[in-house]
Amino acid sequence: MERVQLTEDLQFSRIIHGHWRMADWQYGSQQILRVLEECLEMGVTTMDTADIYGQYTCESLFGQALALKPSLRDSIEIVTKCGIKLTSKEGVGINHYDSSKKHIIESVEASLLNLHTDYLDAVLIHRPDVLTDPEEVAAAFSELKRAGKVRSFGVSNYTPSQLNMLQSYLDEPLITNQVEVSLLVRDQFENGTLDQAIEKRMPVMAWSPLAGGRIFTGEDAQTLRVQKALKKTAAEMGTENMDQVLYAWLLKHPGKIMPIVGSGKVKRIRAAVGALQLKMTKEQWYELWVASRGKPVD
Ligand SMILES: NC(=O)c1ccc[n+]([C@@H]2O[C@H](COP(=O)([O-])OP(=O)(O)OC[C@H]3O[C@@H](n4cnc5c(N)ncnc54)[C@H](OP(=O)(O)O)[C@@H]3O)[C@@H](O)[C@H]2O)c1
């Protein structure tokens, strides 16, 4: 498995496993542990979660599985997120964003307990809080780092200017911006996010790399065009698996995109890992780009 260097002493696996849908999988702790062990055998060591996933349940589901085999903790990197408050939490009146120092620290403390760990490899601010006071974020990050509770920090769903603004208040570089990128959602290629990632040597994590499954089930004109092109490219590349072509398409970009696989099914995670071996030509890449865009390049 290819490893991606984020800081001097932190690497992620190029393919990451995501826990957003974990509550829907309806797996018990033993089954979650088995999926984790299968991931590790494939070299998928980085796990992406968030305080709010599964209405605040997914961190605990994973933490309970990890508690069955605590020796695995140091073989994985745990990425979690904070900064969104949902009404499913007691005392929250309306869904909103909160990047205050108090909320970041309280959320991280809760994540540590839920995940049965005494450190997190990375904490990301989940979505930009319009009312962010960057000095508070900086103070929260410094305190958590000094206490050895969090090794590194990043953001998610930030525009390049939001990222630059926050970065200008921080002592250490943000390690990533986790954003939605797929063949159906191409905005990041053209809105400066991926340019910034390359400029800053800051690989992005790609959420919903298969457009949340919509790429297989959608019936709108764009999806139908993409499905047709995917079938053609899959045949040319010698795979029957459209997922693999989608991953290979993301992996070819020079921004070192790290796709987050959202399925709990081991065969799907294996397919993503297999995509690292596939070679896609520039013409194949642009054929898919054009299918998504709906018009040839100018
Ligand atoms: N930072 C953020 O704001 C944010 C937002 C959303 C997600 N995320 C992260 O990104 C991760 C991945 O997101 P995602 O789950 O939306 O990723 P995704 O991989 O694009 O979508 C996963 C969905 O696609 C389905 N699927 C996969 N392969 C399929 C196939 N061959 N045919 C039909 N359906 C297929 C899966 O179904 P099965 O379960 O049946 O395989 C699952 O429902 C999340 O777990 C989370 O960690 C972050």
What is shown here, in short?
The chain has 298 residues and is α/β, with parallel strands linked by helices. It is 44% helix and 15% strand.
Keywords:
single chain, 298 residues, alpha/beta, eight-stranded parallel β-barrel, two-stranded antiparallel sheet, globular, binds NADP nicotinamide-adenine-dinucleotide phosphate
Can you tell me about this structure?
With 298 residues, the protein is α/β, with parallel strands linked by helices. It has helices spanning 22-25, 29-42, 53-56, 58-67, 101-114, 134-146, 160-167, 187-190, 193-199, 214-217, 221-237, 242-251, 266-274, 282-293, and strands spanning 3-7, 10-13, 16-18, 46-48, 77-82, 84-85, 96-97, 122-125, 153-156, 177-180, 205-207, 258-261. It has an eight-stranded parallel beta barrel. It has a two-stranded antiparallel sheet with strand order 1-2. α11 packs antiparallel against α14. The radius of gyration is 19 Å and the shape is globular. The two termini are 37 Å apart. The chain binds NADP nicotinamide-adenine-dinucleotide phosphate. NADP nicotinamide-adenine-dinucleotide phosphate (NAP) binds next to β12.
